[in-house]
Amino acid sequence: MAEKHFTLQEANDLLPRLAPILRQLIAVRHSMAEKHGKMEELRAHVRGNGATAEGRLFARLKDELDSIAAELRHGIEEIQGFGCVIKDLEVGLIDFPAVRLGEEVYLCWKLGEERIAFWHGIQEGFAGRRPVGGEFA
User: Fold this and answer.
1) What is the pLDDT of residues 10-36, one digit of tens each?
2) What are the residue ranges spanned by the domains of the chain?
3) CB atoms < 10 A from the CB of 16, how many?
4) How many CA atoms lie within 13 A of 116 on its CB side?
C-alpha cells in the first residue's frame, strides 16, 4: 500500500510543479547518453594508443557524467518526495497512487497531457489505462 493516496484534484494541482522537473530530467538523460557515448569512443581510442590528451578528456567527461548523474538522482528523489511513482522517464510518465471504489489504483499522467484523464490498476500499467470518471471526484 502506498504511503500517500492522491485525490484527482491533488494530482492535477501538482502537474505544474512536475512538468518542468520532468522536462529537465529528460534533457539530463539525453545529455548523459551523449556523454556516455563520447566516453566509450574515447575509451576505445585511449586503449588503442594510450593518448594522454584523450585520457584527460575522458576524466573530464567522467566528472561531468558524475555531476549529471547526481542531478538526475536529485530530480527523481524530488518527484518521489511528492509521493509520485516515475514509470518512464524517457517520455515523462508518472503515476499517482489513488483509491478507486476501495481499491488502490494509479492515476496516470504523461508529460504533455493537460490534466490527468486516465487511471489503471496497480498491475496493469500504461496499456491498461482507462478514462477517469466520477469515481475520483
Assistant:
1) 999 999 999 999 999 999 999 998 988
2) 8-136
3) 8
4) 30
- In angstroms, rounded to a whole number, what is the distance separating the alpha carbons of residues 119 and 135? 11
Q: Counting beta carbons within 10 angstroms of the beta carbon of residue 31, is it exposed (0 to 12), middle (13 to 18) or buried (19 or more)?
A: middle
C-alpha dist (Å) from residue 91 to 19, 110, 111: 11, 7, 7
Is 86 in contact with 80 (CB distance < 8 Å)? Answer: yes
Q: Who contacts 84 (Cβ-Cβ below 8 Å, separation ≥6)?
A: 14, 18, 94, 95, 96
C-alpha grid cell, residue 120: 489503471
Q: Cell 574515447 identifies what position?
A: 42
The predicted-structure confidence for 59-83, as pLDDT tens digits, reads as follows 888 898 999 999 999 999 999 999 9
Cell of 82: 511528492
Residue reference for cell 527523481: 76
